[in-house]
Fold this protein.
Amino acid sequence: MAERVFNFGAGPAVLPEPVLEQIRDHLPALPGVGMSVLEISHRSPAFDEILATAEANIRALAGVPDDYRVLFLQGGATLQFSMVPMNLLPPDGTADYLLTGSWAAQAAREAEKFGSVRVAATTEAEGFGRLPSAAEIDISSTAAYVHATTNNTIAGTQWPAMPDVGDRPLVVDASSDILSRPIDVAGHGLIYAGAQKNLGPAGVTVVIVRPDLAERGPSSLPKLLRYATYVQGGSRPNTPPVFAIYVVSLVTAWLRDQGGLQAAAARNERKAAKLYAAIDRTDFYRGVADPDSRSRMNVTFRLPTPELEAGFIHETEAAGLSGLKGHRSVGGLRASIYNAFPEAGVDALAAFMAEFERTYG
Ligand SMILES: *Cc1c(COP(=O)(O)O)cnc(C)c1O
């Protein structure tokens, strides 16, 4: 394998090296199949097994209740911004949205096309630098569902625990922290995540949904925009993204072999703590997110000037620390340290930060 850099990119993001090696070894021919995973039929026994494995691994890792559906879709998290209201928001109904970042705001704007959207809380006036407190959240007792983003990839905030939404179905965009820590699936109505941050490559979206909600979309919806279609068709109403689902099956097996979600949470906690310590050590670096709202997946920070930030990005790229430029909408720096990001890369960045400050601080 050519030499690899430390990939701090926000997504598509780093994959576990053992998974990449397994993909490489089995790419020309899957053992016992004699064909590449890129060539097999999506109706073949080989793919039956891949799909069943991916689903079983997710169920085991997250403790998905037996009656919940685990579906594999396309269109990314962004299509879920539309599918959620198309399926769950009646035209005369209202959905509550927690606006905690630009992805959450995009989801709310899309929902407005299908029904009324009520803002149950927002921190937009503060640049989404923190999450709303329980006292700031106002959930309507008649909301069709409450939508929240578990981890705000751009601002770098993450709910320590999801807010209490009473008996309303909680729908979450978990694209950037799914399977990074234990999750109470039964406390959710629907969980969705584009795979390309914590689960695998781009091209597949995982949806975990309560059975009654999966059936709620009207039959007048376009076939592929209705959750029930994927329930009935076993995630194969048409050709699914075979390769992406294959990689998800390998990444989830790797996660299981690493000790599951409790162990993943401990590793993620340790990695994030090291970077926040490097930021907080002096005044040279400044964390973007409020300390109580800090994300363990996307560590956002600033330097004293835009010139120093540009120099930092330039020098880190040269040093094999790639992808640290913040999202184009907010600037600054962002270190994305998802499940597969190695602790050695965090140590390398912390050491680089200390050295950069010695030179320019
Ligand atoms: C990356 C991201 C998205 C967009 O995902 P696509 O798969 O590109 O549509 C949506 N929500 C969150 C929280 C994200 O991190």
User: Anything to note?
Assistant: The first strand starts at residue 6 and ends at 7. DSSP finds ten helices and 14 strands in the chain. The CA atoms of residues 276 and 287 lie 8 Å apart. The mean pLDDT is 97.
